[in-house]
Amino acid sequence: xxxxxxxxxxxxxxxxxxxxxxxxxxxxxxxxxxxxxxxxxxxxxxxxxxxxxxxxxxxxxxxxxxxxxxxxxxxxxxxxxxxxxxxxxxxxxxxxxxxxxxxxxxxxxxxxxxxxxxxxxxxxxxxxxxxxxxxxxxxxxxxxxxxxxxxxxxxxxxxxxxxxxxxxxxxxxxxxxxxxxxxxxxxxxxxxxxxxxxxxxxxxxxxxxxxxxxxxxxxxxxxxxxxxxxxxxxxxxxxxxxxxxxxxxxxxxxxxxxxxxxxxxxxxxxxxxxxxxxxxxxxxxxxxxxxxxxxxxxxxxxxxxxxxxxxxxxxxxxxxxxxxxxxxxxxxxxxxxxxxxxxxxxxxxxxxxxxxxxxxxxxxxxxxxxxxxxxxxxxxxxxxxxxxxxxxxxxxxxxxxxxxxxxxxxxxxxxxxxxxxxxxxxxxxxxxxxxxxxxxxxxxxx
Length: 446
Hints:
Helix content: 25-40%
Radius of gyration: 26 Å
Structural class: alpha+beta
Strand order of the largest sheet: 3-2-1-4-6-5
Distance between the termini: 59 Å
Number of strands: 22
Shape: globular
């Protein structure tokens, strides 16, 4: 078996990944995927450099990988960039998982090296099986249609020239050509969701369909085309349905009722204004009821009038309640943005007043965000008796005009889970019995 140079260059040209005379930064871990990419780039005559990150998570093994990549660069007579990251410290400082920390660190550094050295693009060694895993993860997490197209061959300056190959094909080429590579021991662990899919789920799927990679490759093309078709349809609907009257946007209720599929198209029409799927569901259910119902987003208010829904820009000082579903990842609220992250480790957030971790099993969806109401009370962290929120604010000497701006995270049973930026409810804290956590983090956008 020879190196598939022609398939490699054909895939690059067909997907317009980069030009023949460009300069590339190849991200290389030392594993067989990225090492094969180096050999294909070299055999195809492309001008590239190698970049390797040492996340310092595997001791001597990580250092050996770093040295391997350095020697690989020397053997191929290409420039070599490398860096050592204190990944654990970064994860702790930013209250994120080790995996997320490694991702953020490497992509930030790749972009920095690219700009400093005027590289055209950053080449990543993702292959068809990586794309399959991404789709399955997105299906589990509920990211919608955009999550079904998998990993794109080109996304901005990131290019993936190995997406025409599956993992087994890469292994067979590496073995036949006698190409040396290093094996990351963490790849065999099923601790991480992606590895669990790789080692336990996908092999079962391949029993049902031995040509799984080829099938998913075709599926991803269909999904991308469907996404493009949807965006074109939404653009047409905006021209037909959006009526602007001064600062107001009017949409006919009759036209909304005639949308097919209604929920998807209405969500896409309102998405740019900060409305999530949960709010769209509530809006649809209210269309046949009395007029006057309002729906809030960060900067906009929707009002159901007699024959139209009217969108106006709003004063963000005191937002109304916003519903939060388990599938939501980002919620805009007044002067804040709230993010949700589900984690399988009992992580306790410290030294960050704008973030908190909650025992996930105690959450009852939909949650909601709202401002303070007279009579509110909760059990402040560290206390076993409830306290009126008004007294809690007085104790912290929070000015009156600021109280209504503080977001309260409310459970489905009405409990205040978190006084955003100030105090968690003691009854929702992470304990030794906690199995899963949900991490909430606020960002000021004012």
